[in-house]
Amino acid sequence: MNTLTKFSIKKFRNVAPTTLEFRPGLNVLLGKNAAGKTTLLRLLSTAVGVPDEALEDDVLDVSYRVSGGLLDFEHTIKKVRSKEPALSLDPDRPVGEELSSIQQTNSFVFEKNGVVVMSAEVRPNEVVLERSGKRSRVELRFLNAPFTSLYQALVMSERDSASAELAKAIFLAEIKSAGRMDESLERFNRLLGVEVRRTDAASVRRWWNLVELPRSISKVLRLLKPTPEETSAMFPVDFLERAARVLGYDSANARFDIERLSAGPNRQTVRFSNLRFFFKRPGEEVSHDLLSYGQKRLLAFFAHADASEDLIIADELVNGLHHEWIRACLDEIGERQAFLTSQNPLLLDFLRFDSVDEVRRTFILCERTSGESGAQLVWRNPTMDEAESFFLAYQTGIQRVSDILLTKGLW
């Protein structure tokens, strides 16, 4: 499984340059309010390919390393602000004012068994590939995500079987994530508003917006044929069934309203919208609208986890959850890597450790400091001494994890 092992920050807002190390399973951000925990989650999400709107105009220079798949790789992201003379007929614009835009460059180094097999740079208008001492340039015709542009450039530049295999390995090496789940229900409410379209034309079927859905819902829709004649379609979904059992229901279904936008002898476009979830037990059927806030939070997390193949990012995971549901959420994460925040000690007390190094890689300490140059955010792993002190106390089995962190001054 693809795992994020390191994350380096050279330049980003008022964050002190740092390199963070992570473990394959659960990673937890600790710190007081305004120490940058949510900002770090936003940055991680942006780095692995799910841009956060709050960081859209930020200048940055960061890199991360991924290991555990067919290929290991390092990805460096640089966003700089470029200024161009403003050419405007607007008399209110001062003469000489410049227009500013953000330009992003992505650099990759791919390794197999410790040997570099290819390096690449994805620029705003081209991809530069370097492989086996050979350098090539491929013009970008469309603006795509960096990994998509890289994959397309490799396929287009060399059409031999070795290049095809390398392209496939690169595609599989990418960290798959749905980005950051927020601390409330914002992302979940946005999911409910997603509209999906399907066009059938000349035996060719095309879908729009499936990527915005949890994987199990996308799978059901892809296999849905023909389009139901009714005005709505209800179907079971894997993650929904699991959430239903945790919430005390026997079963659950997802429902889409169906609207036919256009129809012809050789073409039909259908819109799926108004996504709803229904839960059943003897003598009762309720819509998700009637669930409590905590129940909705659990449902939102299960949907978010289903959309995240490799990496789960969740802000204040235990917000509104019963302690038994916290365990259910951790079970839902399974073997995947996760980055979580929580001001509630319940989550921390579920953590388990087998070594000092595992302690060091699990926690990211977020602090806010002040100096002559102003406020600065410091993000770091515990030192080896701090991790060893924690682990020795943990091994005694007397104190809970949250109590040890408080006693050692780490939280």
In short:
The chain is α+β, with helices and mostly antiparallel strands and 411 residues long. Helix content is 29%, strand content 37%. The model has no long low-confidence stretch (mean pLDDT 93).
What class would the helix/strand composition place it in?
alpha+beta
Q: How far is the first residue's CA from the last residue's CA?
A: 30 Å
How does the major sheet shape up?
8 strands, antiparallel
Low-confidence stretches: none
Mind explaining what this structure looks like?
- The longest helix has 15 residues, at 293-307.
- By secondary structure, the protein is an alpha+beta fold.
- Helix 2 packs antiparallel against helix 3 (161-173) and helix 6 packs antiparallel against helix 7.
- The protein folds into three domains: 51-174, no CATH class; 182-307, no CATH class; 312-407, no CATH class.
- It has helices at residues 37-47, 146-157, 161-173, 186-192, 215-223, 238-246, 293-307, 323-333, 345-348, 356-362, 384-396, 401-407; strands spanning 3-12, 18-21, 26-31, 60-67, 72-85, 98-112, 115-122, 126-131, 134-139, 177-181, 196-201, 204-208, 232-235, 251-263, 267-281, 284-287, 311-314, 337-341, 363-371, 374-380.
